[in-house]
Amino acid sequence: GQNIDQPTEMTATEGAIVQINCTYQTSGFNGLFWYQQHAGEAPTFLSYNVLDGLEEKGRFSSFLSRSKGYSYLLLKELQMKDSASYLCAGLTNAGKSTFGDGTTLTVKP
Amino acid sequence: DARVTQTPRHKVTEMGQEVTMRCQPILGHNTVFWYRQTMMQGLELLAYFRNRAPLDDSGMPKDRFSAEMPDATLATLKIQPSEPRDSAVYFCASGSGTGAYEQYFGPGTRLTVT
Fold first, then answer.
1. How many CA atoms lie within 13 A of A54 on its CB side?
2. Are B88 and B10 a contacting pair, CB within 8 Å?
3. Per-residue pLDDT averaged across A21-50, rounded?
4. Which residues, other chains included, contact B34 with Cβ-Cβ below 8 Å and sequence gap of 6+?
5. Is the CB of B105 less than 8 angstroms away from the CB of A102?
6. pLDDT confidence of B53, banded at 50, 70, 90?
7. CA distance B19 to chain A (A)
8. B53 at A interface, C-beta within 8 A
9. B67-101 residue pLDDT tens
């Protein structure tokens, strides 16, 4: 089975950097997703990490450590529009995905 | 601009009625997922298909839920009979490749069972 843990809520200031952590326990682990979900909308894909290390995509970066069962999403130069829920999800080799409960990020001016 | 479409967007029904939700995956995507999202449980995987074949439906209550892909352009999720606890937003997502690493979500069907 899979177990995904991430903080429930975080608050940060516009222009700052925030790191959202995720720990996982997944049998047959293949990789880890990050999705963004604004209130009332569908999740949208941010990143997928298979190998250890940091992957950067614009203001967003995602890190994975397979040996530690740990990932984080780093958001730089925060904007008000970044206020959303950020979902961490594990993917097994069989293609099954399990989502965490999400971290609600509030960006304040 | 390729998108996953879902119908209906909203559905209000009475307990005991049958509910059918439909999803059209992005053309060319061979993997389709059904998720349910509630405040209490978060986003839960109900079932998923690859090349129209069901791979895993262990997240779905078998006694009342069923998921099918009659063809490559249509996936359906049925609830019969519906119960108030089924009230949730149901998302369909599609992806391509063996891992379906990037899943594209539809807008969801908001179901309310009274």
1. 10
2. no
3. 93
4. B23, B45, B46, B47, B48, B60, B67, B75, B77, B90, B91, B92
5. no
6. very high
7. 21
8. no
9. 999 999 999 999 999 999 999 999 999 998 665 57
pLDDT of residue A92: 85
Query: Using 50, 70 and 90 to split pLDDT, how confident is the model at A51?
Result: very high
What's the rounded Cα separation, in Å, for the pair B31 and B105? Answer: 12
pLDDT of A103 reads: 97
- Dist. CA A85–CA A104, nearest whole Å: 4
Residue type at A47 in one-letter notation:
S
Nearest-angstrom CA–CA distance, B45 and B56: 9
Q: Do A45 and B56 touch (CB under 8 A)?
A: no
* CB-based contact B34:B95 (threshold 8 Å): no
Environment class of B22 (CB within 10 Å of its CB; exposed 0-12, middle 13-18, buried 19+): middle
**Which residues in chain B (66-105) have CB-CB distances under 8 A to chain A?**
91, 98-105
Q: Residue B100 has what pLDDT?
A: 56
Distances (CA, A) of B57 to A10, A67, B61, B81, B96: 33, 29, 9, 18, 19
